[in-house]
Amino acid sequence: MVKYREVRRINRACKYYPCHKGLEDCTFCYCPFYPCLDEDKGKHIYSRTAKESIWSCQGCGWVHKKRTVDSIFKLIRVSRLVPKMMLKNNTAKGTGVIILAHGSRLKDTKKSVHNVIRVIRQGLGLKDVAPAFLQLCKPALAEAVQALMRRRCAVIIIVPYFLFNGSHMTRDIPRAIEELKRGFPQVKFVFAKNLSYDECMISHIVIDRIKEALFHADHKCA
Fold first, then answer.
1. DSSP states of the chain as a string?
2. How far apart (Å, rounded) are the C-alpha atoms in residues 145 and 99?
3. pLDDT confidence bin for 189, thresholds 50/70/90
4. Which of 1, 17, 40, 182 has its Cβ near the most Cβ atoms within 10 Å?
């Protein structure tokens, strides 16, 4: 269990204090989640200065509640401690990760995978994170494995960058991993779950896309 102290910060010296009704915490003067597009916390209004519709959360005090701030800081501390704990316990030592995508002839597809890998490296503090593609792009899965082995990775986690459990997930990738196990018995391969297992996260992403589309549709009609 991660222990943390409750955050309590009130900036009474601020000339805008109290800026919100029921203000309990000034840690986040500006909301890091803006614009949240949550209609329970705000709404779109027309800005004469910007001469366009903008998101207003003037009446929202959610991020200024002690409970909210404590929860945010707890998440930050846990996310920072996990990679440190992994490295301290040698869990991540000698471990490589492969983000396995389908592949495409479009350059933006490959670029997108590399952007995801950059974020993963920063988030987990792991250096040995590599891309691989089933087809149409390089490197192939076996090539990515050999590259990580040259970096002395004895454990390789293969993360399928796939949304659904189609034929690639249920047939092609498991077959490829079995071949890798036979070809490289000195390496321990771990097959991670695909993206659809986190249906809650996927649902929130879809909700955000719908809200963005509705916002742009309203803006164009206005």
1. ----PPP----TTSTT-S-STT----S-SS-TT-S---TTT-EEEEETTTTEEEEE-TT--GGGSHHHHHHHHHHHHHHHHHHHHHHHTTSSTTEEEEEEE---SSHHHHHHHHHHHHHHHHHH--S-EEEEESSSSSSBHHHHHHHHHHTT-SEEEEEE--SS--HIIIIIHHHHHHHHHHH-TTSEEEE---GGG-HHHHHHHHHHHHHHHHHHHHHHH-
2. 11
3. very high
4. 17
Q: Cα dihedral sign for 108, 109, 110, 113?
A: positive
pLDDT > 70: percent of the chain = 84
CA atoms within 13 A on the CB side of 103: 13
**8 Å CB contact between 170 and 194:** no
Of the ranges 18-22, 112-116, 182-186, 196-200, which is most confident? 182-186
Please tell me whether the peptide bond between 160 and the residue prior to it is cis, using omega within 30 degrees of 0.
no
Copy the structure tokens of residue 214. Answer: 């509705």
pTM of the model: 0.57
Backbone dihedral angles phi then psi of residue 204, each to the nearest 5 degrees: -65, -35
Q: How is residue 26 written in tokens? A: 């000034």
Q: What is the pLDDT of residues 45-100, one digit of tens each?
A: 888 887 778 888 877 888 888 888 888 777 776 665 555 555 555 456 688 999 99
What's the pLDDT at 154?
Answer: 92
